[in-house]
Amino acid sequence: MERAIDTDVRVVGAGIVGLAHAREARRRGLEVVVLERGERAVGASVRNFGHGFISAMADGPALECALQARERWIELGRRAGFEVLESGTVIVARHPDEVEVMAQATRDPRRAARLVEPEVARLAAIPTEVVAGIGMTTALGLAPRVIDEMLAGAASDGLSAAPAVAFGGARPRHEEARADYES
Hints:
Elements: E1 9-12, H1 16-27, E2 32-36, H2 44-48, E3 51-52, H3 61-80, E4 89-93, H4 96-106, E5 113-116, H5 118-121, E6 132-136, E7 140-141, H6 144-155, E8 165-167, H7 175-182
Parallel strand pairs: 1-2, 2-8
Antiparallel strand pairs: 3-7, 4-6, 5-6
Helix pairs in contact: 1-6, 3-6, 6-7
């Protein structure tokens, strides 16, 4: 059965990336419909996502976008009730040229990065020689398998008529998450 969908924005896929875009569009006052082929998201976002590595972005627009996205994930987690771990991360260097790249990253305070001694970097249990490492406190940890329905509820924030999320033609499953989000 085909039917027309009259909306400002259509998002295909109710995974963490699709729902984040839907939420941003709703934040901007747009009417949004999210389409998902199954009863719930089970694609790549749910299988692969969970680590927001902000400090690795290139200078310029990519880094600015990543820093802004980091703040939005933290705010959305607070509002929708899912945990966003401000966990940071440690990256190891196995060669001196890698240490120089890491040193460059530490010069930008927005990256919240510092070089760490080889002894600290070795705690990462890398099976090869480690010469140094970099600690970056801006990294985030998310649990996408837990938050998909909570995020669906948050994405639909402000809708009064049609649901924002339609899962495979089935009745939207975000209503319980939305009720939790609104309370």
